[in-house]
Amino acid sequence: MCQSSEFGAHAIYRKPLGLWFLVSIWNATFNFRTCQTLVLVLTFFSYASYHATRKTTSIVKSVLDPKKAESGFIQWPIPNSIYLFYSQHWKPLQTSGWAPFNSPSGTEMLGVIDVAFLSVYSLGMFFAGHLGDRLNLRLLLTIGMVGTGFFTALFGVGYWLNVHSFYYYLLVQIFAGLFQSTGWPSVVAVVVNWFGKRKRGLIMGIWNAHTSVGNISGSLIASALLTYGWGWSFAVPGLLISAVGLTVFLFLPESPEAVGIDKNDALLMPGRTRNDEPLLEGKEEKIKDQAVGFIEAWGIPGVAPFAFCLFFSKLVAYTFLYWLPFYISHTAIGGEYLSNSKAGALSTFFDVGGVFGGILAGHISDHLDARAITAASFMYCAIPALFLYRAYGSISLFWNVAFMIIAGLFVNGPYALITTAVSADLGTHASLKGNSRALATVTAIIDGTGSAGAAIGPLLTGYLSTQSWSTVFAMLTAAALMAGLLLTKLVATEVKVKLRVRRSARSEESII
């Protein structure tokens, strides 16, 4: 079973109630492998549900603001002009849509809501990482999921209560972003607590498909429910993530100790050796686990370059996440405009490419043992992919889907790699001397910095799209280039290491 006498009452106290019930009442048996599988499944669906709720806003955008993107351009920055449209004196552009978002400034309003959500999400990430290394990860994740579900559903309640106040929707999204910020540091820390370094890139690349699965399921659910009223597109995903959150509370073992598994015993399992350097390994020189400080975590080699690379990488990825359905519905494909529901469903192919991109990037980085080279290469390849989608995606549905999948592969590949395997590697860096209590903090720093870019991208798109979508794609291309360039020093270091290893191997062969 998952419990051993060595851990006694403390293990029973921390064991999730659902597992305790299964062990005590049904006499169920949970070995180490079973617990690993349980962790992968629960964390997969938990973060997929986070992304499903996050995707709903992009699907509903075209219903709230149905006008064509060519309508009036408002210069940036325009705080005074924006606030005029938030008052009771909004002027609708047409009878359809939802006030105040169907006003001449509706597109910009939606951009402001996106940036409010993502800004709070980004800032909250740093605090969530700090808490994640100090509190029970299972409880933190549960609170985040239930809170996210509540405020996601509350956004949809505005439909039934006939709410037309911008401030209502803005405030709801701010609180939703705050609760969403608990998710990523928690799930990464839990997964890394259970898995070692061997094939980490491939395993976490496959596991990271939860992002695309969440985006796809969120798009399909929200699109299907638009027929019954856009409020349902928020309410149902909100209820689903709350239900998954309760399941996490009942069954997720956040670490081997939580279910009474001795870390050292886990090392002796068949197929696992000390050379695998698992995160469960207890090293002789290991210092007493103390949560790593925020500034200290920034000083870990590689954290800053990858964090700023992710800033630009997520800027591109989240612009697609929030604006791709809107872009598709406002762009003639094969000479025809698609409905909002069809545009939302079509946008899921970007995430299909993202699934393959995450797996491919993880496998390549494992094979080459070169995270920076892999991430930078993918970002450089994203540049022509973005150009092809913008230039030729409108020819037909076939070419739109084909170039969308290619763009999703190269955009989401490095994004997935950095937020999973790279974060896990840096969170267990040699400079920490075996201290495992830096995982959530490092993950939060990297993804929190990336989320700042995720906030800026959709905001700028809200303004630039009213001028020209070509301008938006120029911004995305520049961001992809910057993401690759920021890893130049790390790429050079990895190349030098590869060359040194190759020269050493040749020297040994010549001696033999």
TrEMBL record:
Domain Major facilitator superfamily (MFS) profile per the UniProt entry, residue ranges: 41-496
GO molecular function per UniProt: transmembrane transporter activity
Keyword Membrane tagged: yes
GO cellular component, one term: membrane
Lineage: Eukaryota, Viridiplantae, Streptophyta, Embryophyta, Tracheophyta
Record-stated family: Belongs to the major facilitator superfamily. Organophosphate:Pi antiporter (OPA) (TC 2.A.1.4) family.
GO biological process terms on file: phosphate ion homeostasis
Membrane-crossing segments per the record: 30-50, 109-127, 139-161, 167-195, 207-228, 234-252, 303-323, 343-361, 373-392, 398-418, 438-460, 472-492
Keyword terms: Membrane, Sugar transport, Transmembrane, Transmembrane helix, Transport
Protein name per its UniProtKB record: Major facilitator superfamily (MFS) profile domain-containing protein
Organism: Dendrobium nobile
Gene3D superfamilies in the record: MFS general substrate transporter like domains (1.20.1250.20)
Membrane topology recorded in Swiss-Prot or TrEMBL: Multi-pass membrane protein
